[in-house]
Amino acid sequence: MIGCRVANGSFWKGCWAPAVWGAFLAVACSIPPVAAVADELDDARTLFRAGKYAECIEACSAGLQREDWRENWRLLKIQAELETGQYAQARRTLEAALQSFEASIALRLIGRQVYRFNDRPDLGDRLLDEIEKLTQERSFRFTDAANRIALGRFFLLRGADPRQVLETFYDPVRRDRPELIDVHIATGELALEKHDEALAAESFALAAKYTPDDPAVLYRLARAYAESDSQKADEALARALRANPRHSDSLLLQADSLIDAEDYIQAKRVLAKVQEVNPANPRACALMAVLAHLNSDKEAEQEWRAKALANWSTNPEVDHLIGRKLSAKYRFSEGANYQRQSLAFDSGYLPARIQLSNDLLRLGDDEEGWRLASEVHRDDGYDVLAYNLVTLHESLSKFATLTGDGIVLRMESREAELYGPNALELLQRARQTLAAKYDIRLEEPVVVEIFHEQKDFAVRTFGMPGVAGFLGVCFGNVITANSPASQGEHPSNWQSVLWHEFCHTVTLHKTKNKMPRWLSEGISVYEERQANPTWGQPMNGDYRRMILDGKLTPVSRLSGAFLNLESPADLEFAYFESSLVVEYLVEKHGLPVLKQMLDDLARGTPINDVLASRVAPLDKLDEQFSAYARQRAEQFAPEVDWSELPLPPNADLEAVRAFTKKSPKNIAGLALLARKLLEARQWAEAKAPLERLLEIYPENIDGDNAYLALARAQRELGDTAGERDTLERLAARDGDAREAYLRLIEIGRRSSGWKLVAENAERMLAVNPLLEAPHRALAEAAEALGDAPRAIRGYRAVLSFDPVDLAEVHHRLGRMLRETGDLAGAKRQVLMALEEAPRFRAAHQTLLELVEPESQ
What we know:
Layout: H1 18-26, H2 40-49, H3 53-66, H4 71-83, H5 87-100, H6 105-116, H7 121-138, H8 145-157, H9 162-176, H10 181-193, H11 197-210, H12 215-225, H13 230-243, H14 248-260, H15 264-277, H16 282-294, H17 298-308, H18 316-328, H19 332-345, H20 350-363, H21 366-379, H22 384-396, E1 400-404, E2 407-411, H23 413-437, E3 446-451, H24 454-462, E4 472-474, E5 478-482, H25 494-511, H26 517-531, H27 541-548, H28 568-589, H29 591-602, H30 607-614, H31 618-635, H32 653-662, H33 667-679, H34 683-696, H35 706-716, H36 720-731, H37 738-750, H38 754-767, H39 772-784, H40 788-799, H41 806-819, H42 823-836, H43 841-855
Parallel strand pairs: 2-3, 3-5
Antiparallel strand pairs: 1-2, 4-5
Helix pairs in contact: 2-3, 2-4, 3-4, 4-5, 4-6, 5-6, 6-7, 8-9, 9-10, 10-11, 10-12, 11-12, 12-13, 14-15, 14-16, 15-16, 16-17, 16-18, 18-19, 18-20, 19-20, 20-21, 21-22, 23-25, 25-26, 26-28, 27-31, 28-29, 29-30, 32-33, 33-34, 34-35, 35-36, 36-37, 37-38, 38-39, 39-40, 40-41, 41-42, 41-43, ...
């Protein structure tokens, strides 16, 4: 978000005189017009944009013979030579050009890259010094649009304030020459560098408006949309590659995405296309090093890294890129080591510094991680990631910390009072249960941070606010989670979320973080269901339909299912299918085989090789699992008629009733009939289709399900026993059935069914512990059941809500403390009750009972 804060309050970080800046401000009021020239140079640029680099170089050479006075011929030729890895030739072209154009800023800027890739970065830095000298001596010569853009880039390299560069150099050009593509590219590049993807997308979209088929613009547009709109990003990238199938940047972005999807074979094919253009392309070689690492080929990894550094031996981008991709694979330790290597080349390389900060924070090395984030923010006040992290650190410093048995739990102080001990106990149980089940020993404490604001969770987890849709994320020994407070009116069961994420800790530890996402997610969802049948994702009607409609992703390509998404439903199905694969593996081959697979992954064996050796050849496994899933889908609710309802939406009650008589198992017809009867308040008549729905499809717990509808009809008919039975059936299936839990609490209270009250109060607190009602219900039930410790916890929680009957709650808490032998605490609570209500007779009596033993 460019403009959020100025680093050190100063524009100048270089050694040149501020008078230079003043000289440019003096001529900033106008931009001289430049006549557009459509000639052979435009044809050569067209060749470059189409990926015909050799032809472009040839055209430039011919153009130089005809028009030696045109600087742009030289710039384009150097650009094509750099693109094809002809670094030595690019140096010769540059040095010859500088003899003819001794005052060129543009040549010196591109020359910096030329010298770097000839392993002479010192000469490149000297060119920047020459630009500084030129601006001091001849500032009046550099006021045209092209030079203003070049100067903006120069000042940014020198550490100038990004906002002033925008306002002084780029904005005037965008205003007066909006058709000039390079100004939009420069603005967008600056925004991307500062992680302001929204501004970047806006700038590149403007550039694409003027040059819709320029692959360089479309590639940048794809990058800008990559995090926020994958569909637009894919469209832009596809357009770029249609315009130039040899466009290296676009191919590299495509390979990057394929690596994320674990389609390593196709990623190598794409990288091979880049290397056909430039065998020495450093980013392509770096990504090949990543692939070698993921294949546990250390020798090849080092060979590819050496190739990436062959022409510029201290290029910090190479190790930064390798490390960033490894961290994306949850190999944070290896990623951090690569960032350190990058910083050894260039200690001021900000991308590596902020990435290292994130890696360390995900490894639990908070002290160095937060220090690095603070340093980056100090040095670059416009880096959004660093700013967000520094702001978050301030919030985290106010969190409460609970510890015990290898767990460090951090959460907002009031939430810690309300359910912190319960969360800590659940995490300790998960650690003990899952570590024993998967034969591992967790030596280090596991840090769990629960955020009461979604934006803080997003920053801690992804570096940026606004990333929604995640309940929790595990990095290994660090887990982040959204609290119920951050999830709006319908929070998910926080206990199932923590169990799910802790399972990731166990499996990542067992595999040394070398496991595909689908298997990690599949085991976690599977273990949710093993721990509690109301947790996890069970088969439902939507999943059944997707399986039977052929939407299954083959096991051999399952990681891609988490990336190639058309809707949120596709992501949910990817989680479910992954858990179904795990269920298949355990059911058909046993848990020991699954654990052996995890051990194989820890040794660096690729997942498909593991599957082939431990389970079956991949084609056979894909076929067997598909048959298994299809059988599970066909056996799901087998009595249900799933066909669509052949009635118009406005069909009347009698038409619907007639249809259900002919098709008594059609789920859509039964649901519509029940809804119309409920709308007509025909409660008794509505029971029949609802009971039929529950008979043939008891698994349906989605939305306004038949359980809730039947319970409503029973309540209207005064059938409390029937309503209770219906809601208890729902509560036994659904870990998020808030409405059912609250109604069962109410029913239990009215009948003094304190066990029912306690059970459903606990269930409700597992969904939303930030409401007073379930805490009060649990306290009252525990008191009635003689469970003083649980009643004490409940009444203390109620007090934090500042209840209207404050005196009564203090008094009840005092009585419970007396039951545990805490007489001093009991007296304190009773006195607080009397302070609120001096004539509270019951409290006076309790106080006398507390005082009498002291006087004896």
